[in-house]
């Protein structure tokens, strides 16, 4: 009996659902697999970062491994075409805020709406989990990414000076306030 009362008093009011079912996505005739990231994906994540960030890896192997262990409040997704990693996204969830920690799309797969699609997935997950807003940081000189985020409804919040320590580049903190109405799931014509 005591066990039942203990469970009742210690239930989380805002339980976060980090479950994810892998699925297939077809983009320009290419079959892409979208699945939850795990430690086996880390070497591919590091290679993709080098491709996207001009040979640099903003996140280390340790950073990815640490984040992938946070399964109770984080979701990291990878997108593969055959055995090639073409994109990934990560976010941390709480009732107050969902924070996009990282997103990258291979240069060979950019401008095909994959990043937009992944962002919408995370925004919908944030709504499903009752977050009040979605936030992220973006380099002040990354106008393409800023345009993507603004197209999704994000607005600039404030500047974080020297946020990217490797290049001493400033970041714009952007926010999307949620109305808790789920975005209509769109079928993209790729």
Automatic annotation (TrEMBL):
Specify the domain of life of the species encoding this protein: Bacteria
UniProt KW Transferase keyword: yes
Q: Which residues form the N-acetyltransferase domain?
A: 32-179
Q: Does the keyword Acyltransferase apply?
A: yes
Which Pfam families did the record assign? Answer: Acetyltransf_1
- Enumerate the GO terms in the molecular function aspect: N-acetyltransferase activity
User: Could you tell me what this protein is called?
Assistant: Ribosomal-protein-alanine N-acetyltransferase
Organism of this sequence: Lactobacillus helveticus (Lactobacillus suntoryeus)
The organism's taxonomic lineage, starting at the top = Bacteria, Bacillati, Bacillota, Bacilli, Lactobacillales
């Amino acid at each position: 009996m005591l066990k039942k009362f203990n469970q009742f008093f210690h239930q989380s009011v805002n339980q976060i659902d980090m479950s994810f079912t892998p699925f297939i996505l077809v983009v320009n005739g290419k079959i892409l697999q979208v699945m939850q990231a795990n430690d086996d994906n880390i070497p591919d994540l590091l290679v993709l970062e080098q491709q996207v960030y001009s040979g640099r890896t903003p996140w280390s192997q340790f950073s990815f491994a640490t984040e992938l262990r946070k399964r109770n409040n984080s979701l990291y997704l990878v997108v593969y075409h055959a055995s090639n990693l073409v994109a990934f996204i990560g976010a941390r969830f709480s009732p107050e805020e969902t924070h996009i920690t990282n997103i990258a799309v291979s240069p060979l797969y950019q401008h095909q709406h994959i990043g937009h699609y992944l962002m919408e997935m995370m925004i919908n997950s944030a709504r499903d989990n009752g977050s009040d807003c979605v936030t992220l940081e973006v380099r002040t000189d990354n106008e393409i990414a800023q345009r993507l985020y603004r197209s999704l409804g994000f607005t600039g919040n404030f500047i974080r000076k020297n946020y990217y320590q490797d290049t001493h580049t400033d970041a714009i903190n952007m926010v999307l306030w949620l109305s808790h109405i789920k975005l209509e799931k769109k079928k993209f014509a790729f």
